[in-house]
Amino acid sequence: MSTPNAGPGAALRCATHPETETYLRCAQCRTPICPRCLVMTPVGAKCRACARARPLPTFHVTTFNAVTATVAMLISAIALGALGSIALRVVPLFLMLFPLALGFAVGEVVSLVTNRKRHVILRAIAGIGVVIGYFALVLGDFLVHGPIDLVGSGTLAPMLLNAVVGLIENPFMVLFIALGVWIATFRVG
How far is CA 149 from CA 26, 38, 86, 166, in A? Predict the structure, then answer.
């Protein structure tokens, strides 16, 4: 290390390599460092311990963030799907535009509840929300007027199967859903 009576311009000994004299100190912890130890950063030379790369908070997603995003996605996708089924009665063309608007809305909701964090998991959650919202749109009136009856009567599975068959018969709708998923993932990250 450094000698106890060393003045401001005296040579120091590197903390990692005591045999090396140096005039450098870490910009953060002020530990003496030699040219072999230093890591250049935007704020100056640092020791390896202080210069460790840490992920930005924007890209660090916790379990709480993922759960919050999932709950917000489910609520918004189902609610928007139910509202979309009402709007579909008035404007039939809305069926093609719905996945695009849903992708924007669900992506924005997921982004807002996670404080604009960016991660692949959040993108996947938003994309799944578009698909769930589309199926909520297909269930439409049953979802709005009697959600408990829909689950209890056993008609949920045949209705969802009918929606999948409708997607197979109409590949353009798959394209619109894919665009909606892309918009949702773009909004999140």
Answer: 68, 68, 19, 23
Give long-range contacts, CB 8 A cutoff, 24+ apart: 166-170: 166/138
What amino acid occupies position 152?
Answer: G
Q: What is the 3-state secondary structure (H, E, C) of 1-59?
A: CCCCCCCCCCCEECCCCCCCEECEECCCCCCEECCCCCEEECCEEECCCCCCCCCCHHH
Q: What is the pLDDT of residues 36-82, one digit of tens each?
A: 988 888 888 999 888 887 778 888 899 999 999 999 999 999 999 98
- Residue 32, number of CB atoms within 10 A of its CB: 23
By CB atoms closer than 10 A (0-12, 13-18, 19+), residue 79 is middle
Partners of residue 24 on adjacent β-strands: 33
All residue ranges of the chain with pLDDT < 50 are: 1-5
Amino acid at 99: P
pTM: 0.70
